[in-house]
Amino acid sequence: MDVGRIRKDFPLLERTTTDGRPLVYLDSAATSQKPRSVIEAEARFYEHTNANVRRGVYALSQEADDAFEAARGRVARFLHARSPSEIVFLRGTTEAINVVARSLGRSRLAKGDRVISTVMEHHSNIIPWHFLREDSGIDLEFVGVDDDGTLRLDELDRLLDKRTKVVTVTHVSNVLGTVNPIREIADRAHAVGALVFVDAAQSAPHLPIDVERLGADLLAFSGHKTLGPMGIGALWGRASLLAELPPALGGGEMIREVHLDRVSYAEAPAKFEAGTPNVGGAVGLAAALDYLEGIGWEEIAAHEHRLQELALRLAHETLEGEISIVGPESPADRVAVLAFWLRGAHPHDIASLLDARGICIRAGHHCAQPLMERLGVSALTRASPYIYNTEEEVRQLFDGLIEISRMFRPRPTSAARAS
């Protein structure tokens, strides 16, 4: 993979810091940078095609309709969905989970029903289910993780029974980088009649996704982590399930008829897309998926594998005993998310000191406080390289960490020096 050529496609990577240092962006798990093709595709829509969809009979509106539906088809191909009608455009994974939880709460979940999630979930895949627990009285249970960052499937088996209606799980942890065995989880859940929702926000940028092979019933991902614009994402659901579920948001073109004494709704996916959709974002997302798949999944995996191997080797060779990277030890069992603690240094201090070097990383609880509690920490530092990062940038990261480690390393007392 020609990383140098790829970097030229990303305008923001041309930035330098105020003191002239090149920008080193290592926070792609929070949001990826956008190639020119995505920026230009969204701009072209607003410059040449901007009109509201599903509302006009004039030519410009129909062109906007065509662009919107073409983007839906592109997402369907990306996920290997059977039909574009299985794709719902929403603002991102967070909104998709809220829509799913609300819709299931209106139709399938009642007091005493069980929803199973995991300790490694992003808050976005925990809070909407807590809403249902508070409002409807469902039981919410969580599967734990082993010390190596893998799910305790034995705990899942213990919780699965006929009361279990939903299993909601991340495909890839945004902290551990762990790739969860979704097909195995789905088969076990389906054996007791439960639905399976997959949060693919962190897997879609790194792994090919085939919803049929995964065996899920519902899946969502966010455009902004997948080279696309912010404020756009997609929910996939099996056609039969989307047809059955009620809408979660009301207004706009999600209706068929509205009367003072009754309403009826459009068919999926329209019934889940209340209000004016982000058509320009959808067009940009389609361009992002074209760019991403144009590189090739094998090339992406090989490049990320090299970056991870280098980072893990440098951690061992230069900071052994001073740094601990959480999650699976082998790069083969994780994606390029490297969350760690550095002895004596708070993650926020590390982030600030690296920022002075022009290195952008994440620090905090990463919207995963239950996982932080499981790991016995309040916060971690996270570096998340992607397709446009180089081995030299990984080395710069560790050069900075070595210097920071020396700064925070306890100094010997006078008595110790005298002896």
Explain what this protein looks like in three dimensions.
This protein is α/β, with parallel strands linked by helices and 419 residues long. It folds into two domains: 3-30 and 296-408, Alpha-Beta Complex (Aspartate Aminotransferase, domain 1), CATH 3.90.1150.10; 38-293, Aspartate Aminotransferase, domain 2 (3-Layer(aba) Sandwich). 41% of the residues lie in helices and 15% in strands. The chain contains 15 helices and 15 strands. It has a seven-stranded mixed beta sheet, sandwiched between helices. It has a four-stranded antiparallel beta sheet with strand order 11-12-15-14, covered by helices on one side. A two-stranded parallel sheet has the order 1-13. It is globular, with a radius of gyration of 23 Å. The termini are far apart. The relative contact order is 0.15. The model is unreliable at 415-419 (pLDDT under 50).
- Overall pLDDT, averaged? 96
How does the helix and strand content classify structurally? alpha/beta
Query: What is the string of SSEs from the N terminus onward?
Result: HEHHEHEHEHEHEHEEHEEHHEEHEEHEHH
Going by CATH, the architecture of the largest domain would be 3-Layer(aba) Sandwich
Overall helicity: 40-55%
The Cα radius of gyration reads 23 Å
CATH level-3 fold name of the largest domain: Aspartate Aminotransferase, domain 2
Query: How many β-strand stretches?
Result: 15
Number of domains: 2
| Neighbour order of strands in the largest sheet | 2-8-7-6-5-3-4
Quick one: CATH superfamily of the largest domain? Answer: Type I PLP-dependent aspartate aminotransferase-like (Major domain)
- The coarse silhouette is globular
